[in-house]
Amino acid sequence: MKNTHALFSRKKDCSRKIKTTIFLISSLFLTANTVFAQHPARTATGAAASHFKPSFEELASDRIILFEDSFEMYEDFSDSLGEWTLLDLDMTLTYLIQEASYPGEGQSMAFIVFNPLTTEPPLDGPWLAAVGNKYAASFSSLPGEGGPNDNWLISPRIRLETESEVRFLARSVTDEYGLEEFRVGISTTTPQPVNFEMITGDDAVLAPAEWTVFRFDISEYDSDSVYVAIQSISDDRFVFMVDDFQVTGVEGPSVSIEKEIDRPVSVVLHQNYPNPFNPETTIRFYLDAPRNVQVSVYELSGKKVEDVASGNYPQGYHTVLFDGSGLASGVYIYRLQTDDFSQTRKLMLLK
């Protein structure tokens, strides 16, 4: 289902005046002089851009989610995303949004956790997330200051199964200045850019001006432990948006607990089953050793719904039951935490 919203119009000479206070200290007095710096901004008024909210996509019955993140559990506008590695290699100031402000705006950044509902004033239309309220956003570097973008969003290390695939949603906030460009790479060694092989080839991938599902076959790396990188390489565009990142695979029939113990991944949080569910579903996780574990369910807003597991658990597989009888239909997040591990997944309640 597509909705039509007002498109972005570019004001080539527009700038938002940023008020800066400079304190001048002398031996006798302290004065404050106010100056205005010109910092280019782009605007969300004019002709039309669409916003598309993808419907919930059920995972094929033979596939498991090896890693998933929809960026809901991080602080708004943070440039730190848990176990993700963020690299801002262009180190250039970025465009402002003329209609709204947010913490850290205009600074040099890689990706940030963008929540359009908590900007001042809130944004809507093409700014809205595909899933939940938040997404990872890369703002375009200012021309003449450096650029083009060289911003990296690099996943934690993920142990692959078979028939492995990377899937995520991405879009350009508008096509008024050209579509955002990106590449996807895989590293089997370290999360350093030099070690990534670009599975998208030499040419950039273009992100349409609506939420679009991108899938990349990475079965060449089956059974390896890998890092997955999304590199924003846009040149003088506006905002590249990424949401609902997943790495999935098919669990081989020969996989046993003994084999899993030898893996570098010490804790595994599996997708709940059934999903969607009504009203009960099971959540399964694996521990390589006895650990203090907490498994909690949250609303997309971040409000905790329930702790479904809490305490010390022995090595091995464990299954806990979640009952959503008292909840409204919708998408929720569940998170497993230990002393040195945290992972989130989504579940869907359909009544």
Shape verdict? globular
What do the pLDDT scores average to?
81
> How many structural domains does the protein architecture include?
3
Unreliable runs: 1-37, 45-56, 254-264
> What percent strand?
over 45%
Please give the oligomerization state of what you see. Answer: single chain
Instruction: Based on the coordinates given, report the CATH architecture of the largest domain.
Output: Sandwich
Text of the CATH class of the largest domain: Mainly Beta
Structural class: mainly beta
Rg of Cα set: 22 Å
Proportion in helices: under 10%
User: Number of helical segments?
Assistant: 1
User: What is the name of the CATH topology of the largest domain?
Assistant: Jelly Rolls
Plain-language structure description:
This protein is mostly beta strands and 351 residues long. The protein folds into three domains: 2-48, no CATH class; 52-250, Jelly Rolls; 257-349, Macroglobulin (MG2) domain (Immunoglobulin-like), CATH 2.60.40. It has one helix spanning 257-261, and strands at residues 2-6, 15-25, 30-42, 48-52, 64-69, 85-88, 96-97, 112-114, 135-139, 151-154, 158-159, 162-172, 180-187, 197-198, 205-207, 212-217, 225-232, 239-250, 267-269, 280-287, 291-298, 304-313, 316-323, 330-337, 342-349. The strands form six sheets. Strands 6, 10, 11, 13, 14, 15 and 17 form a seven-stranded antiparallel β-sheet that branches. Strands 5, 8, 9, 12, 16 and 18 form a six-stranded antiparallel β-sheet that branches. Strand 2 and strand 3 form a beta hairpin. The protein is globular and about 55 Å long. It starts with a strand and ends with a strand. Residues 1-37, 45-56 and 254-264 have low confidence and may be disordered.
